[in-house]
Amino acid sequence: MEVEQLDIREHLRRHPPFTFLDEDRLNQVSGSVEIAYFRAGSDIVVLGQEVADLHYIRQGSVEMFRRSGEFYNRLGEGDIFGQISLISGRPARFPVRALEDTLIYFIPGSQFRALYNELEEFADFVEVEDRTRLRQAGARSREGTEMLATRVGRLVQRSPVMMNASGTVLEAARAMTEQGVASILACADGCDPDHPQLVGIVTDSDLRGRLIAAGLPYDTPISAVMSEALITVEADDYLFSAMMAMLRHNVHHLPVMQRLRPIGVIDLADVAGHGTRNSLYLVRNIHDQPDLDGLKSLLPDVRGSFLRMVGEGATANMIGSAVAMIGRSFKQRLLELAEERLGPPPVPYCLLALGSMARDEQSMLTDQDNALILDDAFDRSQHDAYFRSLAEFLCDGLAELGYTYCKGDIMATNADLRQPLAVWKERFAGWIARPDRPALLNSSIFFDLDGVHGETRLADTLKQWIAEQASRAPAFLGCLAHNAQTRTPPLGFFRDFVLEKSGRYQDSLDLKRRGTAPMVDVIRVHALASASVAQNSFRRLDDVAAAGFLTNSMVADLRDALEFLAGTQYRHQAFNLEQGLAPDNKLNPVTLEAFDRRNLKDAFRVLSNAQRFLRMRYRVVQV
Question: Is the pTM of the predicted complex or chain greater than 0.90?
């Protein structure tokens, strides 16, 4: 074999779909290649041209355009084009022009069709576009994830036991014993079985803690011991939704609803038996710990839960939500311990989670970003000593649990971040009205917030107010959109990854700073514009699509790209932990399989296109 053919073969071998070929087929393809050189700016394929060969970019880069002349895509070394025409037998729909001096390998259509017909993996790759490949990659990662494949309704084994809330606890206990259940649903008087009005739930735990331990008589009405803040799930929800509801609200029983009617109750054991068991039991154990030492003893379980979810193929959305819920539970228990030491708070308060924890997108590499919303009755001279001590107990405890102190002092120990609701509204109003550089910096930190402990209605009120104000502020949205374009994906001229050139992380790229973080920034702009109160990026995309701010296709692209970027970040951190290293976000793409490297490029291209769309959709307006 000649040297030139060897060079062609080895180059093809490194890039899909040719990675799927055995040696004989690689030799056949490399021996049939013809080579052509195109100067920058010259046409390679024109609209309507008959395409006879598969085009493979050996060196350089090209741009593709729509029929209208609008830019469509950029391709670089190792990319292919022309396959759609070869498959369909139709003329070229997308003109292609050399962006820089470019070397093209022409692979005869006969060779291409033989490979397409004989090799399923080759066909799967070439018959889809970049975005579809990302979708397939996401689907592949979900195949082994039972939590996203199982509907809640499948867990229901029997109809629920229901009673009037005016009935006695003795009657409830007898009914639960006779029916062999650990919970009973309470409904308004009448308890129509076809259209019951649920008002609460009573569990074995409620009977122990609220009746027997309190010494109440057996003729006490159910309404006196039931849990009124009823958390439910729908029968067609995925099991993951049930798990998240249990994690977020620290409940062990969930009524399952279908068309506004309860059809059953599932409990912790039902959900835990279908995967991600560690996360559920870990949260329960967190709330059972008597002190900080007890919480610290659970840290190996946190690591193990994360590794288990990654190893079982859980989606990035699931992993980020579970890790965030574990962090929320640590905060809740620390504040409960603080209140036991300090006494009840002098005025109602709410602890705010900020950033990735608020979005339920937390990784194993995180610091602590938090703040306090206080009731408007707060008087700093009378009440702040209590909340300062509360914040110190919380933040010091979190540091002991591995959540490092925030270098930017975005913590409740900062007196400026312990403010009444009215002050927080005034502060956000100023950022929205005057979007200068400090305001935009604050926007990237404080516009992702959620209530974790205390009077969480304060956080809900603030989120609703922010959504209403931001959606009516085009100047703010324009500046926020401009700011969301500053961190670009690490693709150099769309030829290959741009890596660190020196230092400790030489030959790596930062998956967070250049990937997930700018993607979150893009989605936040659209969410605020559409008045969404959601914090999680995936749920924000649902609201953006419902509001019509982006097409369903654009939303799907962003969802798939974020899922792949975050999933790659989590898998990299899991690899760090398994190697005995501290988790980081610095990835060397060479460590990925060729298929994943291509998907990573695809995800970065989606991000780049999304940032480009921001420039068209939101205009910077002088304030």
Answer: no
